[in-house]
Specification:
globular, binds S-adenosylmethionine, 42% helix, 7-stranded mixed β-sheet
Length: 192
């Protein structure tokens, strides 16, 4: 199994992607063509920029992408990066200044692990709920929300909340995501 996982890292290096995570987005996007349809994309937790690179290469030429992260990120062509915390006033201001409602909100965010599983699970749930709440407030009609989450005791509750808020909900485990990792991706399509 390790060989298969290493293949993604090697492939990323050969193809100029900053992280193997790029392939997770490529694989999810292959089915749903999320990026190609959006005029405004909000990417949360973007560093080091693997997903931003994918967005940059697949988005419509006039489409805008705003990416945010706590950490610094090297420039990606046609992506506007902001080094800010999701929970900060700066982020709230950024949202206020958006030119239109986003058609796509993407989050590959996860917290720095404390090593205490329950604490980490709750902190990641908080990030997930923030994204869901944000989508309720600002996502465009026919928009989509894609978040990284984890296969744990909170997933059932999160899925239920997604189903209450979106016409269609899909759980994805892309091949590039390590089988040993509990990470999964939850996609909500068309806000109710
Ligand atoms: C797995 S990495 C994202 C990898 C990225 N998708 C890529 O392809 O390169 C998760 C990121 O979420 C960011 N993050 C976590 N909590 C955040 C918060 N509250 N505000 C902004 N970014 C956050 C972390 O700093 C980290 O860089």
């Amino acid at each position: 199994m390790k060989d298969i996982q290493d293949t993604w890292a090697k492939k990323a290096k050969n193809e100029g992607y900053r992280s193997r995570a790029s392939y997770k987005l490529i694989q999810i996007n292959q089915t749903h063509k999320l990026i190609e349809q959006a005029d405004l994309i909000l990417e949360l937790g973007s560093a080091p920029g693997g997903w931003s690179q994918v967005i940059s290469s697949k988005k419509k030429s006039h489409a805008k992408c705003l990416a945010i992260d706590l950490l610094s990120m090297q420039n990606v062509d046609a992506v506007d990066f902001y080094k800010i915390d999701l929970f900060s006033d700066e982020f709230a201001k950024l949202l206020n200044d958006l030119p239109k409602k986003p058609d796509l909100i993407l989050s590959d965010m996860s917290v720095n692990l404390s090593g205490i599983k329950l604490v980490d699970d709750e902190a990641n749930l908080e990030l997930n709920l923030f994204c869901l709440d944000l989508s309720k407030k600002i996502l465009n009609i026919n928009g989509a929300l894609l978040i990284k989450t984890f296969s744990n005791q909170n997933l059932k509750k999160l899925k239920k909340l997604f189903k209450e808020n979106f016409e269609k909900v899909v759980l994805e485990k892309p091949p590039a995501s390590k089988t040993s990792s509990a990470e999964v991706y939850l996609l909500g399509l068309v806000p109710k």
